[in-house]
Design goal:
The protein is mainly α. It contains two helices and no strands. The longest helix is centred in the first third of the chain and has 24 residues, at 2-25.
Length: 56
């Protein structure tokens, strides 16, 4: 149950680690990889921030 709740955060961490690895190794990063990471970060981050700020 905890893994299901944290899976969006784990996904974002994995995406950022992948981009970091590609930057460190000098691989070419396509624009859509950045777009996917940014959208996932903003989407899931906004969702968790909304939960944090509006909890009863």
């Amino acid at each position: 149950m905890l893994a299901a709740a944290l899976s969006p955060l784990i996904l974002v961490i994995v995406l950022w680690c992948n981009l970091g690895y590609e930057l460190l190794t000098g691989q070419l990063i396509a624009w859509y990889e950045w777009a996917i990471v940014i959208v996932a970060t903003l989407g899931y981050g906004g969702y968790y921030l909304n939960l944090l700020l509006h909890k009863d």
